[in-house]
Amino acid sequence: MRRQPVDAALLVAFLRALAQSARGRGALSIALIIGGAMVESVGLVLLIPVLQLLTDREGLVSLWFAEWRRERLLLLLLAAFLLAMTARAFLLYARDRLLWRVENDFVDGQRARLVQGLASARWASLASVRHAEIQSVLSTEMIRLAMAVRLFVQIGVAALLVLVQGGLAIYVAPALAGTLLAAVAAAGVAFSGLQRAGALGHDLARSSLNQMQTMGSLLSGLKAALAQNLQYRFLRDFRDTLGEARGNRRRFSERQARLRLVFGIGSAVCACLVVAGGALVLEMPTPALILLVLICARLAGPVLNLQQAMQQFAYSLPSFAAVAALEAQLEAPAAGAVEAQRILPGAVELRAVHRLHGEGAGLAGVDLVINPAERIAVTGASGAGKTTLLDVLAGLTAPDGGAVLVGGSTLDVTALPAWRERVAYVVQEPYLFRDSVRANVTADTPCDDAALWSVLELVGADTLVRRLERGVDTLIGEGGAVLSGGERQRLALARAILRRPRLLMLDEATNALDLPSERLLLQHLFALAPRPAVLMVTHRRENLDLFDRVLELREGRLLPLG
């Protein structure tokens, strides 16, 4: 996760994204915020004649309604005040509902776009992103991003309220209120420290990522760690990252507490100055002085909220940088310049394909022709490039040199969508949804119960499924947690076969089965009509006699085994 400074560019990018998400609702929200502040100011202004009547002082209103009885005029003014406050309450209700939509639409849009980017990214760029970073951004950083939007809204509300009511205070006592507001503004700038708050926010994002990575390592390796008493190493690492995050939050909390301390003392000093200056120096009328004190008291909360929200916003804004940094790592496939190509019948061919990785391992000029319905097994040492071979055939990885052809046509970005509809790829550790057996096998493939049970029988999973409490509608847990490794592989194979692929690629996809079970499954698979072409990567040699050809990947080239 790249660390980005909290600067104008990051703020502008955030505001641009928020404005694009809010559209017309943003302008309406601002109008409601201003309307609420204006109506509240009107209500405060109405208190002047009320106080004048209560203190038996003359004012414009009492002069305008001189023939009215004092009680009648007081009730009229109170009714007007109540009407203004009621209107303000409805405006704030509408504002809060609208702002909730603005906040949630923005965060949900960011999350949806990021997940869409993950789903459509090139495999090479996706494989380079740490899973912990993806989990951290989609969980912790999205929560912080929602907080950043909420704080930005609070800043806008508090700033408009301060401006409107500050203007009212200046109207009541221009010199005194103007001096105090200028002093408050200067103090706010002096104690802002937004850069430091932003730096702490970046540190928190890094600490959250470290925690997520440590927990992921613990969960993925817990079994082996327990067997060797290594779980305490994970615990130490987690405690270190927990302490780092705790220290970060403590430092930010201490900054907030210091600001509240300074503000509390400063607001008391301002209150004393208002009373002393208004009564002793300016000799203000009592109603006007009371109203000024009331305005200052009402401004204290928004001013403090403004200062605190600005700090917290700077602290939360790095979450937007984390989302943007992850999104930038996800390289999307280039859009085709022509209409999508149709996949032609015929052989699948690799011509002088190069795809090296690590220290020279991978494919170094591989030539291979896979004829329709042909059965090919590929073996080789670990790290020889067998999985890379399958990734290139699936179009997940583009070759550095050479070409992949299907039916005599080059497999490029315009043909990939159609090609991926015609292939099935089963890996050693298959992914299963947290759903029923039926949902996992059918996925998006239309299928009736007869076809479903037929494919389950073909892979030898029908007996297992019939024993389950709800049959094909039984939930199998996270990643198929209630099943064994071999059972998960059988369901993944059933899902692949149900697609009726043109090419079925198996990457150690039967290694959790015993040898007789593997042989029986392959015999059933090879008896399919029509039969797909099968390319199987395996370390086992006991069942290789079932294949038409057996190749070995050695020094980057495919050679006949032997």
TrEMBL record:
<dbReference type="GO" id="GO:0016887">
    <property type="term" value="F:ATP hydrolysis activity"/>
</dbReference>
<keyword id="KW-1133">Transmembrane helix</keyword>
<dbReference type="InterPro" id="IPR017871">
    <property type="entry name" value="ABC_transporter-like_CS"/>
</dbReference>
<dbReference type="InterPro" id="IPR027417">
    <property type="entry name" value="P-loop_NTPase"/>
</dbReference>
<dbReference type="InterPro" id="IPR003439">
    <property type="entry name" value="ABC_transporter-like_ATP-bd"/>
</dbReference>
<comment type="similarity">
    <text>Belongs to the ABC transporter superfamily.</text>
</comment>
<dbReference type="GO" id="GO:0034040">
    <property type="term" value="F:ATPase-coupled lipid transmembrane transporter activity"/>
</dbReference>
<dbReference type="InterPro" id="IPR003593">
    <property type="entry name" value="AAA+_ATPase"/>
</dbReference>
<dbReference type="GO" id="GO:0005886">
    <property type="term" value="C:plasma membrane"/>
</dbReference>
<feature type="domain" description="ABC transporter">
    <location>
        <begin position="348"/>
        <end position="562"/>
    </location>
</feature>
<keyword id="KW-0472">Membrane</keyword>
<dbReference type="Pfam" id="PF00005">
    <property type="entry name" value="ABC_tran"/>
</dbReference>
<dbReference type="InterPro" id="IPR036640">
    <property type="entry name" value="ABC1_TM_sf"/>
</dbReference>
<dbReference type="InterPro" id="IPR011527">
    <property type="entry name" value="ABC1_TM_dom"/>
</dbReference>
<keyword id="KW-0547">Nucleotide-binding</keyword>
<feature type="domain" description="ABC transmembrane type-1">
    <location>
        <begin position="27"/>
        <end position="314"/>
    </location>
</feature>
<dbReference type="GO" id="GO:0140359">
    <property type="term" value="F:ABC-type transporter activity"/>
</dbReference>
<dbReference type="GO" id="GO:0005524">
    <property type="term" value="F:ATP binding"/>
</dbReference>
<keyword id="KW-0067">ATP-binding</keyword>
<protein>
    <submittedName>
        <fullName>ATP-binding cassette domain-containing protein</fullName>
    </submittedName>
</protein>
<feature type="transmembrane region" description="Helical">
    <location>
        <begin position="170"/>
        <end position="191"/>
    </location>
</feature>
<dbReference type="InterPro" id="IPR039421">
    <property type="entry name" value="Type_1_exporter"/>
</dbReference>
<keyword id="KW-0812">Transmembrane</keyword>
<feature type="transmembrane region" description="Helical">
    <location>
        <begin position="29"/>
        <end position="54"/>
    </location>
</feature>
<feature type="transmembrane region" description="Helical">
    <location>
        <begin position="259"/>
        <end position="282"/>
    </location>
</feature>
<feature type="transmembrane region" description="Helical">
    <location>
        <begin position="74"/>
        <end position="94"/>
    </location>
</feature>
<feature type="transmembrane region" description="Helical">
    <location>
        <begin position="145"/>
        <end position="164"/>
    </location>
</feature>
